[in-house]
Design brief:
two-stranded parallel ribbon; globular; mainly alpha; two-stranded antiparallel ribbon; about 10% strand
Length: about 240
């Protein structure tokens, strides 16, 4: 999709794939686990660390505590898990317990995990934020289960387009800036060095970063692709469906 990397040598479903030097996979991480990095880790990293987005302090082995607070709404999603269970080392996505960040976690002072179906969720968030104001949101409207027929897919596309249009108009009316987050942008800016070169090799080797969601390997070989697609359409929980080659 991204013209900067739309080359067959960098594509999938082949025995050998070219990986850019600044996007290398850590030696300690299996390929089956690393397949979540392009979407989950890269998208989260672009939102958190790019200069024209949140521009947070980079993750570090020796972070300096500060007063910044990051609310991850939807911590059970693939991208949400990357910076809760993956990067911050939280243990229970429905807990109201405060957790201190790990030594190699993104540089925020602490994280709190709240069950978003609880009627007390908003009260808990306000109480945990110590009066700080809401300054940014990164989200996308997506159903819990994928449609199973053509009409359902048409309705999904329509609702997705309408959601983006209505959000744009609402933001304009309220004087709020909006922009898309493209996980592939890090290939051409400073974030690839922050994450793939400075953070991932150390964090993965020392157990400070865990690639999530974990892979659910369907089989080895292209003949298992249809089986994997069918399984994914049925719905999986906290897993990434993978076909090894």
């Amino acid at each position: 999709m991204d013209k900067r990397s739309n080359k067959s040598a960098e594509g999938a479903f082949q025995q050998y794939t070219v990986i850019r030097e600044n996007l290398a996979i850590p030696a300690s991480m299996p390929y089956e686990a690393a397949c979540v990095l392009p979407l989950c880790l890269s998208t989260a990293a672009c939102a958190l660390y790019q200069k024209d987005y949140l521009a947070l302090q980079p993750p570090s082995a020796n972070p300096t505590p500060d007063d910044e607070i990051l609310l991850i709404w939807g911590g059970s999603t693939s991208v949400g898990k990357t910076w809760s269970k993956g990067g911050l080392g939280l243990e229970d996505s429905n807990s109201h317990t405060r957790y201190h960040r790990g030594s190699a976690a993104p540089t925020i002072s602490w994280a709190i995990a709240i069950g978003n179906r609880s009627i007390q969720a908003c009260i808990a968030i306000i109480g945990a934020s110590n009066g700080k104001k809401f300054v940014a949101r990164a989200s996308v409207d997506w159903p819990e289960k994928m449609p199973q027929n053509t009409m359902g897919m048409i309705e999904l596309v329509f609702s997705f387009v309408w959601s983006n249009i209505s959000t744009w108009f609402t933001a304009k009316r309220k004087g709020v800036a909006t922009k898309f987050i493209f996980g592939s942008d890090l290939m051409a800016n400073e974030v690839s060095q922050i994450i793939n070169e400075d953070f991932l090799p150390f964090a993965s080797a020392n157990g400070k970063y865990h690639a999530v969601p974990e892979p659910q390997i369907v089989g080895k070989g292209l003949e298992h692709v249809q089986e994997a697609l069918d399984l994914n359409m049925k719905g999986v929980s906290a897993k990434r469906v993978v076909v090894s080659l």
